[in-house]
Specification:
Blueprint (H helix, E strand, L loop, with lengths): L21 E5 L5 H5 L3 E9 L2 E8 L2 E7 L4 H13 L4 E10 L9 E10 L13 E2 L2 H12 L5 E9 L2 H5 L7 H13 L4 E3 L2 H11 L2 E11 H5 L11 H16 L1
Parallel strand pairs: 1-4, 1-5, 5-10, 6-8, 8-9
Antiparallel strand pairs: 2-3, 3-4, 5-9, 6-7, 6-10
């Protein structure tokens, strides 16, 4: 059996000595360097599979920036192995599609909780266990986002396994189920849809670490369906800056 105290993590390639107490995680390996450049003394650390890691410092504390890939399984691996490298506070910086009509491209969504529409979290805790963010991390993310020149929403998001199940549900044999659930999420006030937050929150709860999530809104398909103005924004830096601001607040207390 692998000794995690001595060897590099099997998937992310980090050794415990390369770890830190704080980490920013993001789906796309291509975003890692640009996020790390917001830290002091950024430097490349490791790359393996979909997992790329850089590190830097904030307020004298070492901070990792690691990509987790797309979806629950790869995210769970990332969270588990970063935990084994000492991470105890983790913030996901991601993208989402808006669902509530007031959530538009370029806004930020801080996910206070997530709908379990994915499968990975069920292998950590029973489905009745809520997928919720840590309060202190969430409060810091809201403050960190509001310090920027953008609109910040806080609330529940949908976390799914199928990207095209959302964007082309009628092509699926279970289209009736997908469409009915989507309408239920909307009626419940769900703000946006993405693919990793529920896994992050449930694995974090199972391990005993703090987690939060800030999402850059790319566009809103509900606004598009209703013929409303629907700007598209692919820039993810505001979310990254909000996460950096939040970690500073968490470090300094």
């Amino acid at each position: 059996m692998m000794n995690f105290n001595e060897q590099a993590m099997y998937h992310i390639g980090l050794t415990p000595s390369q770890g830190a107490a704080y980490a920013i995680v993001t789906g796309d390996p291509g975003r890692v360097e640009s996020i790390a450049r917001l830290l002091d003394e950024p430097a490349f650390v490791a790359q393996k599979r979909e997992y790329t890691t850089w590190a830097g410092t904030l307020c004298g504390e070492r901070v990792l920036v690691t990509s987790h890939g797309i979806g629950g399984p790869s995210t769970a691996i990332c969270v588990e192995e970063l935990y084994r490298c000492g991470v105890r506070t983790m913030i996901r910086v991601g993208t989402c599609g808006g669902m509530a009509l007031d959530v538009v491209g370029g806004d930020l969504v801080v996910a206070t909780g997530a709908i379990h529409a994915e499968g990975t979290s069920r292998e950590y805790l029973p489905i009745k266990f809520p997928a919720v963010a840590n309060h202190a991390v969430t409060t810091a993310l809201i403050a960190g986002g509001e310090a920027l020149d953008c609109t910040v929403h806080a609330g529940v998001v949908q976390c799914k396994d199928s990207f095209y199940g959302q964007h082309d549900p009628d092509a699926s044999p279970v289209s009736h189920q997908l469409n009915n659930q989507w309408q239920a999420w909307l009626k419940g006030g769900c703000l946006a849809s993405e693919m990793e937050s529920a896994t992050l929150y449930i694995v974090a709860a199972a391990l005993g670490l703090r987690a939060g999530c800030v999402l850059n809104v790319v566009w809103n398909q509900e606004r598009a369906a209703k013929g409303l103005a629907n700007p598209q924004n692919e820039n993810t830096q505001n979310g990254a800056k909000a996460a950096v601001n939040a970690i500073k607040l968490l470090i300094t207390g």
